[in-house]
Design goal:
The protein is α+β, with helices and mostly antiparallel strands and 375 residues long. The protein is built from twelve helices and 15 strands. The strands form four sheets. Strands 12-14-15-10-9-13 form a six-stranded mixed β-sheet. It is globular.
Length: 375
């Protein structure tokens, strides 16, 4: 719940945070810095500009593969036939061949470490029957994840006029992989992989430049430029950086590290409210009790400029009349948070306990009171 709430209102928080902490200037077409723990966008430039994702497309290919593994529709040790379409893929490859056995597990490493287009097509054909059908699954999943400015046409990221995404959408996708598949995320930290006696290094230079960086994916075409989605964890905090359209491999790595360092240096993740902490008691009508505690069912945290937590202004609003029956977790109000007069976000506040409906006379009395109050 905490992650979803922060995502919904990241536009507000990004605007207010930008006022408090000026963002760095990056040599890239578009970029986003997101706090994974809260889902907040801490800084950005053209986050919703449509761009060509190149091999960053493979993040969604991996996400759907992990989903299929979790659902049990495929298995890690399952042998995968290599079609001629997969074998003949152009661009980066892991060099799979027809009539040579290859497993799902090997193909995943080929996608993540070697950025193999051939591996992507083989997996897409295994999961959906064809790459075209797989692209339809990619778009359905993108919609579910809230990637509202993304459209996929293939599993590889090879150029196509109808293949596009944004820096913000890529940050959402990276966060979803980390959140939903921690058992597979560690594969993004592999520095090299060998298949068919061909060793290839991970193209993510940050894995060698900063020990706190443990993923995720590079992308490059002549039209897209050099792109990098990266993530680092320092202490309990994890940040996600998306840098698109840099001039070179070196520049995308340097600018990504600059962005990550900025986020860790100038922001803190602060717990404002504890799980099940009653922020107020709301009047309940037609219930077995007259009041219910209002708050959040999980720890409520925000990323804030360092030293600014004490300046947060909170306004709690009840959605009266609150009527029984109520279930724990049911939305009953709104918390508005501001910093220096700028709205950070509006966050749903929920009932912290069940409230069964009252008996006949209790409901009748409250109905009469409400009627008189409406006069």
């Amino acid at each position: 719940m905490r992650f979803i709430l922060a995502i919904l209102f990241s536009l507000f928080s990004a605007l207010a945070l930008a006022q408090a902490v000026p963002a760095p200037t990056l040599a890239a077409k578009a970029w986003v810095l997101m706090d994974h723990g809260t889902g907040q966008v801490l800084a950005s430039s053209d986050p919703d500009a449509r761009i060509e994702p190149a091999s960053l497309t493979k993040l969604m290919t991996a996400y759907l593969t992990f989903s299929a593994l979790k659902a049990g529709t495929i298995a890690a040790d399952q042998p995968v036939p290599v079609s001629e379409a997969a074998w003949r893929q152009e661009g980066s490859r892991m060099f799979i061949e027809p009539r040579k056995p290859v497993t799902v597990d090997e193909l995943i490493r080929g996608v993540i470490v070697q950025s193999g287009n051939d591996a992507c097509v083989a997996l897409s054909e295994l999961i959906a029957g064809s790459e075209e059908a797989f692209a339809a699954l990619m778009n359905r999943e993108a919609k579910r994840l809230g990637m509202t400015n993304t459209h996929f046409t293939n599993s590889t990221g090879l150029p196509d006029p109808q293949l596009y995404t944004t820096a913000r959408d890529l940050a959402l996708l990276a966060a979803a992989i980390i959140r939903d598949f921690p058992e597979y995320y560690s594969l993004y930290s592999l520095k090299e992989y060998t298949h068919n006696n061909i060793k290839q290094p991970n193209r993510n230079r940050l894995l060698w430049m900063d020990s706190t960086v443990d993923g995720m994916k590079t992308g490059h075409t002549s039209s897209a430029g050099y792109c990098l989605v990266s993530t680092a964890q320092r202490g309990p905090r994890r940040l996600i950086s998306v840098v698109l359209g840099a001039a070179s491999d070196t520049v995308r790595a340097q600018e990504s590290l600059k962005l990550l360092n900025f986020g860790f240096q100038f922001f803190d993740t602060v717990q404002l409210y504890a799980a099940d902490q009653a922020l107020s008691q709301f009047r309940v009508w037609k219930g077995q009790v007259n009041e219910v505690g209002a708050g959040f069912t999980s720890d409520f945290v925000l990323s804030l400029p360092k030293g600014q937590a004490e300046k947060i202004e909170a306004v709690l609003e009840s959605r009266q009349p609150v009527m029984a029956p109520l279930q724990k977790g049911q939305e009953i109000g709104t918390m508005k948070l501001s910093l220096d007069g700028k709205l950070l976000g509006e966050y749903p506040v929920v009932a912290l306990q069940d409230v069964p409906v009252a008996g006949f006379f209790g409901r009748l009395w409250d109905a009469l009171v409400l009627w008189f109050k409406s006069l």
